[in-house]
Write a structure and sequence with these properties.
Blueprint (H helix, E strand, L loop, with lengths): L2 H16 L18 H6 L5 H19 L2 H9 L4 H32 L8 H14 L17 H4 L2 H4 L1 H28 L12 H23 L6 E8 L13 H14 L6 E3 L13 H14 L3 E10 L5 E10 L5 E6 L37 E3 L17 E6 L6 H9 L4 E6 L9 H16 L3 E5 L5 E3 L5 E4 L6 E8 L6 H5 L2 H21 L14
Parallel strand pairs: 1-2, 2-3, 7-8, 8-9
Antiparallel strand pairs: 1-12, 3-4, 4-5, 6-7, 9-10, 10-11
Helix pairs in contact: 1-3, 3-5, 4-5, 5-6, 6-9, 6-16, 9-10, 11-12, 13-14
């Protein structure tokens, strides 16, 4: 391999190695703003085919690091052999890395056909591929680039217009501008003193980056400076029971589990309007097992506070065959079920087998009761009125809320539907014990921050273990628990229903990026007649 090829490969590897450090719990979000510079320098003077492999290398390494928790979930808790768990991680990372490969190949082709404007297409292409990753094959929008900024609140406020995709857009544009400047400097060095005169500096991309980055940051600062939290609020208790995953569904531990929930619930009901237990909190079928259901009813009656909790729900097909749903129940203080939300976006290979008729030889990768069916509607639940007939908090109608269960919180469009349909605040329940002691619980929590900003709605999050907490409508973390701790938390969150542009209109920005990407590709195809092997002049302008 030639020295220059080795250098290009090393740059691609560097981008891949740095990728996981941009996200929690490394919390080096600033790295995202220079993350793609090495990769773009590597593809600056190579043909599209070579750029594809460099992008795939960077993507594969990056997702191997970011998604490493998959091995913990499949091996430790899913009982898959360790070797097969690593193989599954490698295949998943190879698939996710394809999105980076397509990005680098497309950018390289465009800069060979449409210089100097081609680099302006880069963030549109990136967002298009992130949207595809969110939807294709059930979707896996884990570690989208925009999530790296979950702790820089002024940088993410544009998400109320664009969703998380807008944050990714700005990050990629800045990276491309920096890379273009580096390539121009390299070109300048190579042209001195004997080669042809240097073309002028390619101002288009850096100028666009400065304008858009400055504009988005000023917008975010303005939103945070002028934001006023509503005077109406709720006091909510969260229960993080930290039930060992190995004991969770063991019938011998049922009473011990319920005793723990009873004790922690007592600590979480001090003048609270609602108590929340995590996903699948009851280690039994709540509607079917009447003895254990009676214990929960007695507990709720005793404390006199509404309860949201997760439990599997048993249902039957028309032919009598049973199936399960991963559900969240709202229980009234007098022991009635006021409503139920059924999880709509299930975890592939965890809660169901996709393409089961073809993959019949696969069992689920996690232990559980059986295959699940997905819910169909974004059910908005309402808190019951107080016994004196007045709603709490004081208002004409009781506070309404939506519930997203575990994996669902990483899908922007799914969450916004609840706010669009009238939710005043959001609840998310999860069981992050599957992730073990990895970065995944922190990554998962960081994504909820973006969901709050996108919709300007507060979140209360209850996890079996890490991370439980409260997030305000602008992404401020009001309180958060450590992982693998048993505790009750009480917090106060503002409530309101003032849907943002994103809540009302969804992924308009992302689909706009798809259209603009298509226009760039059409223009390039028309200009070249399909010939992509034109000579490349780095830093050239017209």
């Amino acid at each position: 391999m030639r020295p220059r090829s080795v250098f290009h490969s090393a740059l691609a590897v560097l981008t891949g190695v740095l990728y996981p450090f941009c996200f929690p719990n490394f919390d080096l979000g600033w790295l995202a703003w220079i993350l793609l510079v090495p990769l773009h320098v590597a593809i600056g003077e190579v043909p599209p085919r070579r750029a594809f492999w460099l992008g795939w290398t960077a993507g594969w390494i990056g997702f191997m690091g970011t998604m490493g928790w998959v091995v913990t979930a499949m091996h430790m808790y899913g009982k898959m052999p360790l070797l097969w768990s690593y193989l599954a991680l490698a295949l998943l990372s190879a698939y996710l890395g394809l999105h980076v490969a397509v990005y680098t190949m497309t950018v390289t082709w465009l800069r060979r056909t449409l210089p100097p404007s081609a680099l302006l297409a880069a963030p549109f292409i990136w967002v298009t591929l992130e949207l595809i990753r969110t939807s294709l094959f059930s979707g896996l929008p884990w570690a989208l680039l925009g999530y790296s900024q979950s702790q820089w609140l002024s940088a993410i406020q544009i998400a109320d217009l664009t969703g998380v995709y807008g944050v990714s857009f700005v990050i990629v544009l800045v990276n491309v501008a920096l890379a273009e400047s580096v390539l121009w400097i390299i070109r300048k060095y190579r042209t001195l003193p004997l080669r042809q005169p240097l073309s002028t500096f390619p101002w288009a991309t850096p100028a666009a980056a400065v304008v858009i980055f400055t504009g988005s940051l000023l917008y975010g600062l303005g939103v945070l400076r002028t934001s006023e939290l509503p005077s109406t609020s709720l006091t909510i208790g969260l229960v993080q029971a930290n039930i060992d995953q190995a004991h969770k569904w063991d019938a011998a531990y049922r009473q011990e589990t319920l005793d723990r929930y009873a004790r922690l619930t007592g600590e979480a009901t001090d003048k609270t309007d609602l108590v929340i237990w995590p996903e699948a909190a009851t280690p039994f079928l709540f509607e079917q097992e009447l003895v254990y259901r009676g214990i929960v009813e007695s507990m709720v009656r005793h404390y006199g506070v509404p309860l949201v909790f997760g439990s599997p729900a048993l249902r039957y097909y028309a032919n009598g065959k049973p199936y399960l749903m991963n559900s969240a129940y709202l229980f009234s203080p007098d022991g009635r079920i006021l409503g139920r939300y059924d999880k709509r976006h299930l975890v592939p290979f965890g809660e169901y087998i996709p393409l089961k008729s073809f993959l019949f030889f696969l069992d689920k990768l996690v232990e559980g009761i059986g295959d699940f069916e997905a819910g169909t509607v974004p059910t908005v639940l309402a808190l019951p009125a107080k016994p004196d007939g007045h709603a709490e908090p004081p208002s004409r109608t009781p506070a309404k809320f939506g519930v997203v269960i575990c994996f669902e919180a990483i899908f922007p469009d799914l969450v916004r539907e609840f706010v669009r349909d009238g939710a005043d605040f959001m609840v998310t329940i999860t069981n992050d014990a599957w992730f073990g002691d990895s970065a995944a619980p922190y990554q998962h929590f960081g994504m909820v921050v973006l969901r709050a900003v996108e919709n300007h709605v507060a979140f209360a999050r209850a996890a079996n273990t890490g991370i439980s907490g409260f997030i305000d409508p602008y992404g401020r973390v009001l309180n958060a628990s450590p992982i693998f701790t048993e505790q009750a938390m009480i917090g106060r969150i503002p409530i309101r229903n003032a849907p943002t542009f994103y809540s009302r209109h969804g992924d308009v920005f992302a689909y706009g990026c798809v259209i603009i990407t298509g226009l760039f590709l059409l223009a390039a195809s028309w200009r070249t007649g399909g010939n992509v092997q034109q000579p490349l002049v780095v830093g050239a302008t017209t």
